[in-house]
Specification:
heterodimer; A: 135 residues; mainly alpha; 5 helices; 82% helix; 0% strand; disordered N terminus; B: 144 residues; 74% helix; globular
Chain lengths: 135, 144
């Protein structure tokens, strides 16, 4: 069907690069914001001691938080760019699910989270699913 | 894990979690495919796109998703809310097919189902890592 808003087709490597940009930027953003929130400490405690203004000040004076937000913004614009060139039924599931996998790896490497056999099995299922999506 | 009975409002919030993200992504896709091809030579076009109607509606829906997701997490476990977001993969495919008229092959449907099963599989596991130092502190607090 040739609709005025049908997405133009892109090559395999161009599509891979666009999805990789979304996945890497959102993983960096999420890891940095998670690390920022951990370094700030319990916001409820800060709010109890210094009030809401103190809690907001604690967040907005943390450089890691802004680095995270910057990467999340980059991920959003990468998503818009990809949607300008690729089909939604490829971009949305592939980027969301691969971000899940890279977050698990980043969580293990940087945030020392436990990634058990169940999560690795899920990661493998997701990767096979993305392979089917792309071919 | 047993969950207390949810109220009608809480079911509505879970429904919003499932529907708002795929609907938001569909609006973004509708808006971006309506624009001429954007190249990396003109990145400013991407910023201008944010102010077009479909993209603005998409952003509003994604903010709505985030708000309902956080609300759901305030009274339900992550392992209970995550399957609601996993179903978004199927819903987004339905929007792509029936609204944006994208051709979705059987293989792509199989991929979407596998991803949804994969996310659901994670949802059945433990949601929080017990760090030894944190566990020791908690045990000390309980002993007091």
């Amino acid at each position: 069907m040739n609709l005025p808003y049908s997405a133009p087709s892109s090559g395999f490597w161009a599509a891979t690069a666009m999805i990789a940009a979304i996945v890497l930027a959102s993983t960096a953003g999420e890891v940095l914001t998670a690390a920022a929130m951990k370094s700030i400490g319990d916001l409820d405690e800060i709010r109890a001691h210094s009030g809401m203004k103190g809690a907001i000040r604690a967040v907005v004076t943390c450089p890691l938080f802004f680095a995270g937000v910057g990467f999340l913004a980059l991920a959003f614009f990468s998503l818009l760019f990809a949607l300008n060139h690729l089909n939604l039924s490829l971009v949305a599931p592939a980027s969301a699910s691969l971000t899940l996998v890279t977050n698990a790896i980043a969580g293990k490497l940087f945030l020392k989270e436990n990634v058990d056999r169940r999560r690795w099995t899920a990661a493998v299922l997701v990767c096979i699913g993305v392979y089917f999506l792309a071919h | 894990m047993a969950h207390p009975k949810l109220s009608l409002w809480q079911y509505a919030v879970l429904g919003l979690v499932s529907i708002s993200a795929p609907l938001g992504d569909s609006c973004l896709s509708r808006g971006m495919t309506g624009l001429p091809g954007i190249t990396l030579a003109h990145p400013g076009t991407l910023v201008a796109a944010v102010f077009t109607p479909w993209i603005a509606v998409g952003i509003a829906l994604l903010i709505g998703f985030f708000a309902s997701y956080l609300t759901a997490l305030s009274w339900a476990d992550l392992t209970f809310v995550l399957p609601a977001t996993a179903s978004g993969n199927v819903i987004v495919a339905l929007f792509a097919h029936f609204w944006l008229h994208e051709a979705i092959s059987l293989q792509r449907w199989a991929g979407i189902v596998l991803i949804t099963v994969g996310v659901g599989f994670v949802a059945n596991g433990p949601s929080l890592t017990e760090h030894p130092a944190l566990a020791a502190t908690r045990e000390e607090e309980q002993a007091q």
